């Protein structure tokens, strides 16, 4: 579900899921688990997000760019509900009040742990735009929480 919100092309999502499952299967013994402070879900999502970025890069070399992810009205995802329950109500409220384009960048950079370059590819934005939106989002969060 999380990948579908990042990419509207079902074929790319299916390919990324298959690549992710294969990568997880091959590297399951290397997962450090709680010793490194990470969770299995976070580890799998990191693999999936990076595979999605790789898929976008592969498609970018073709004549036509990948279809843009069109924002679809969806019910709150389970991860957002879990985040709201985990994160203090003030932080959760501040996140919800952010403009969608700022929240997307902040989620990709902070919550998903992607680099600026990966976020730019994932969201189809120039790197400078990602940096600017990240800065604006952090300023807005700081003001909302002060």
TrEMBL record:
Composition bias, Pro residues: 64-74
Claim: Cytoplasm is one of the keywords in the record: no
Domain RNA polymerase sigma-70 region: residue ranges: 3-60
Domain (RNA polymerase sigma factor 70 region 4 type) ranges: 91-140
Transmembrane segments: 27-49
InterPro entries named in the record: RNA_pol_sigma-70-like, RNA_pol_sigma-70_dom, RNA_pol_sigma70_r2, RNA_pol_sigma70_r4_t2, RNA_pol_sigma_r2, RNA_pol_sigma_r3/r4-like, WH-like_DNA-bd_sf
Signal peptide (UniProt feature, chain positions): none
Keywords, alphabetical: Membrane, Sigma factor, Transcription, Transcription regulation, Transmembrane, Transmembrane helix
Region Disordered: start-end pairs: 60-81
Highest rank taxon of the organism: Bacteria
Family as reported in the entry's similarity comment: Belongs to the sigma-70 factor family. ECF subfamily.
Protein name: RNA polymerase sigma24 factor
């Amino acid at each position: 579900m999380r990948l579908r919100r990042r990419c509207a092309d079902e074929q790319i999502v299916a390919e990324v899921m298959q690549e992710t499952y294969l990568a997880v299967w091959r590297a399951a013994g290397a997962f450090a688990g709680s010793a490194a402070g990470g969770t299995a879900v976070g580890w799998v999502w990191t693999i999936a997000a990076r595979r999605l970025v790789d898929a976008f890069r592969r498609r970018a070399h073709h004549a036509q760019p990948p279809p843009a992810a069109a924002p679809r009205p969806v019910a709150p995802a389970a991860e957002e509900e879990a985040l709201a329950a985990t994160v203090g109500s003030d932080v959760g409220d501040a996140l919800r009040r952010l403009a969608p384009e700022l929240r997307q960048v902040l989620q990709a950079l902070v919550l998903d742990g992607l680099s600026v370059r990966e976020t730019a590819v994932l969201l189809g934005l120039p790197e400078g735009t990602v940096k600017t939106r990240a800065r604006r989002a952090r300023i807005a969060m700081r003001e909302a929480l002060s």
